[in-house]
Specification:
heterodimer, A: 476 residues, 18 helices, globular, B: alpha/beta
């Protein structure tokens, strides 16, 4: 079930009303209801893969319980390992089996040998990378004694399968989300209003920004030899906004839906295209995944402790794994590599942690320096997206060859209206950069004006939405 | 909670009003679907039935045929719906002697539920009284036509209706009579590129739709109906931009269908030289003049 469909527009109010009116009195029944609703939500795609969510949940629930019961190091390691094997084994099989087989076959063929192994026709279960990472973080945190395991199986199942963020995040930590299932939720008017605003904003980002950009992106990337360098550049530009609108839109709807049910999910995007360097970008883009990799890969590897060479190695490992997490294709790995590469100057100059403040705070117009910093960061991100979008490495390289041709300075054949629209959108993001989201408009005292803004957005969504496209991050 | 629900309800009232108006619009204003359904249900004495997509809708004028004919084709009508329509109406057409069925570049590889016509199936269901297996009972769009189309398309359709006074784009015989003009060679070339891109689905899987054509042929056989399997004319530029390998496969399937079925006549007008640029509205659709030529050509195959 997609968030931007009539089905969800019917599903969500039903869940909301039953949740608050019928099941409100008993938290356990409320949680059982959420598990059933979440499993139904997932089954709308493919009920056959519900077994995988169930398996991940049951394995980590019991591993968590047993971890708490034993202090013996070897036993604890074995328990953690069993969770890792089951979860990463499922993920590896469904997502990476064919990729590794094909890659090995190619390597063998380079040496004039053939590898007798065949690929399988494997369907990728929607959201597998997201819920696998979420449930893994629970086990790892218990292993590290950072959290206590839950004895409540229903709460745990609800935590793993919570429908707003089941298929595309935010990837929640047990320390944040699980306790929310274990305490009584109270209806909060202002929280619900904010949830509705986020849903509206998410629909706008997905249906207007992402889906309109997708039309141009699909055309330009599919027929790239026919287009000038400048048009190809704008193809990448539109893709940058497509993926941003698509994924941050989904996250907004997820967070908004969770708020309606009384839950607080973590912020997943924070105006990433206003970042002044790559370090800031990764603190603002897909925050739940970046922090996951920071906590469960980067820090265990040593983080920035030790020599600079080790630090650089750790950064490369994290970005390459992050690339691989996105998909079983070399394009994603190269995308991760490019980010790691451009991260290097920040490490060498130790400026990766800069810019934790609000850019040009209190100013309406950004300074030239800020514009340059934002522009150069965006340019790197934009060019790296070409690898992310391309079907294979050859496609990406040819696309780059097209961009960096003499025609780069010709007039692009793209919709100027769309470019202008995106520019205006970014102005609003700039003006709201110190807020949690674009529609945090409580500072507008006039209620009619706020309502007019909501109607305006509804109208834009209805009138200017592009052809419905699948959410990009579902494939991950 | 009550405050929230009352605020949401108030907020949604104007949106619901617009939705209801759109629903009333779709349910009350006649369009090609309602009109064709009405005509085909009324005319039981039809001898020639035309099925297919926009190529036959605009390209075959029943008035030019010597037998009583009706054009039941429609814009973006896939073989899936051709089959459903034929199965629905064949028993009510006792005089039917010929079925003209077009096979175009996309006909045999087109998937069901493609983006372009994803909304049309609800119109076939609601306005042509077809049982469409693709639509599940729990799909909300089954119950509201306004939900099937994007609001801007509904608004455009409404504006169109305000301008022309009708949404019906065909005559009493079902022929699409709104394609009257032509374009110059340069524009035709540009259109050929645009349409060829749109029509190139990359698929070479002909199995499902070939089977559907065969099922239509079998049904015709059982009713002693002759089939004219037609490849409609197109601008050479358009033809050359599409995969020759696929054209060859279409050609060989059509020939195969002709060989194994005694009631099939193959008429290949794709590259027929009698059609010149001035016979086309765009790269792959005949205009009224071209439709006359095409219909008279097909008429030679009718007894």
């Amino acid at each position: 079930m997609l968030f931007n469909t009539i089905d969800f527009a019917i599903f969500m109010p039903i869940i909301f009303l039953l949740y608050w009116f019928v099941f409100k009195r008993n938290i356990k029944i409320q949680n059982i209801f959420l598990v059933l609703a979440s499993y139904f939500f997932y089954a709308c795609w493919d009920w056959r893969f519900l077994g995988l969510i169930f398996l991940s949940s049951i394995v980590d629930y019991f591993v968590g319980l047993y971890l708490a019961k034993t202090e013996q190091k070897s036993k604890r390691k074995a328990l953690l390992l069993s969770s890792l094997i089951v979860n990463l084994g499922i993920l590896g099989f469904f997502k990476y089996y064919n990729f590794f087989i094909e890659s090995f076959q190619e390597v063998f063929s380079l040496f004039g040998r053939s590898l007798e192994s065949s690929t399988l026709h494997i369907l990728l279960p929607v959201g597998i990378s997201f819920y696998t990472f979420q449930t893994l973080s629970y086990t790892i945190d218990i292993y590290r004694k950072r959290i206590e395991p839950t004895n409540n199986v229903v709460s745990f199942f609800a935590f793993v399968s919570f429908f707003p963020q089941l298929v595309a995040g935010p990837i929640e930590r047990a320390s944040n989300l699980l306790p929310q299932f274990e305490r009584k939720r109270e209806f909060d008017y202002s929280k619900s209003i904010d949830g509705l605003r986020l849903i509206l904003l998410g629909l706008f980002k997905k249906m207007v920004i992402a889906d309109n950009c997708a039309l141009a992106v699909n055309e330009i990337f599919a027929y790239y030899p026919e287009y000038s360098g400048s048009t190809l550049f704008f193809g990448a530009f539109f893709f940058a906004f497509q993926i941003y609108g698509d994924f941050s839109g989904y996250s907004d709807i997820a967070i908004g839906s969770a708020r309606l049910l009384g839950f607080d999910l973590m912020q997943n995007f924070n105006s990433p295209y206003l970042s002044r360097n790559l370090g800031e970008f990764w603190r603002r883009w897909h925050i739940s995944l970046s922090t996951w990799f920071r906590d469960y890969v980067y820090i265990p590897l040593g983080g920035n402790k030790g020599s600079q060479a080790k630090w650089i190695r750790n950064i490369f490992i994290v970005f390459l794994v992050s690339g691989l997490w996105h998909g079983a294709n070399w394009t994603f790995i190269i995308w991760g590599f490019i980010h790691a590469l451009f991260f290097m100057p920040l490490i060498l100059k130790k400026t990766n942690a800069n810019f934790k403040d609000v850019a040009d705070e209190g100013k309406i117009i950004p300074s030239l320096k800020t514009i340059f910093q934002i522009g150069s960061t965006f340019l790197i991100v934009l060019l790296a997206w070409v690898f992310f979008r391309a079907e294979n490495v050859t496609h990406a390289l040819l696309y780059f060859e097209g961009i960096f041709s003499a025609s780069l300075f010709s007039i692009p054949t793209v919709s100027r209206g769309l470019v202008l629209f995106l520019f205006i959108y970014m102005i609003f993001e700039w003006l709201q950069r110190d807020k949690k989201h674009l529609l945090e408009i409580d500072f507008i005292n006039s209620k009619p004006l706020r309502i007019a803004i909501y109607y305006c957005l509804v109208f834009i969504i209805f009138y200017f939405s592009g052809d419905t496209q699948p959410f990009i991050y579902f494939q991950f | 909670m009550k405050k929230l629900l009352s605020h949401i309800s108030l907020f949604l009232i104007p949106i619901c009003v617009v939705w209801m108006l759109a629903e009333v619009f779709y349910r009350t204003v006649p369009n090609n679907y309602t009109y064709k359904h009405e005509q085909i249900s009324k005319n039981k004495d039809i001898e020639v039935l035309v099925l297919g997509d926009s190529h036959t809708f605009y390209g075959i004028n029943p008035e030019q045929l010597s037998l009583k004919a009706y054009n039941l084709s429609n814009v973006s009508q896939t073989i899936y719906f051709d089959k459903l329509l034929f199965e629905k109406h064949v028993n009510n057409l006792p005089n039917l002697k010929y079925l003209i069925l077009s096979v175009e570049y996309t006909t045999l590889t087109q998937e069901d539920n493609t983006q372009e016509d994803i909304w049309r199936k609800y119109f076939y269901k609601a306005q042509m009284d077809l049982e469409v297996p693709l639509i599940q009972w729990y799909n909300p769009k089954k119950y509201s036509l306004a939900l099937t189309r994007k609001f801007n398309n509904t608004w455009k359709t409404f504006k169109d209706y305000r301008e022309k006074g009708t949404l019906i784009g065909c005559d009493a015989n079902g022929w699409g009579n709104t394609y009257l003009a032509t374009v110059n060679a340069i524009e035709m070339k540009r259109l050929a590129h645009v349409v060829a891109k749109k029509h190139e689905d990359g698929s070479m899987d002909f199995s499902v739709n070939s089977n559907r054509v065969q099922q239509i042929i079998d049904l015709c056989k059982s009713k002693n109906i002759e089939i004219l399997l037609v490849n409609m004319p197109s601008v050479p530029e358009y033809v050359s931009l599409l995969k020759s390998e696929k054209w060859k496969k279409i050609d060989s399937i059509c020939n195969h269908l002709k060989t194994i079925n005694t009631n099939v006549t193959r008429i290949d007008l794709l590259n027929d030289k009698q059609f010149t640029l001035k016979d086309f509205q765009d790269a792959d659709h005949l205009n009224a003049e071209g439709a006359k030529k095409c219909s008279l050509t097909l008429n030679q195959y009718l007894d």
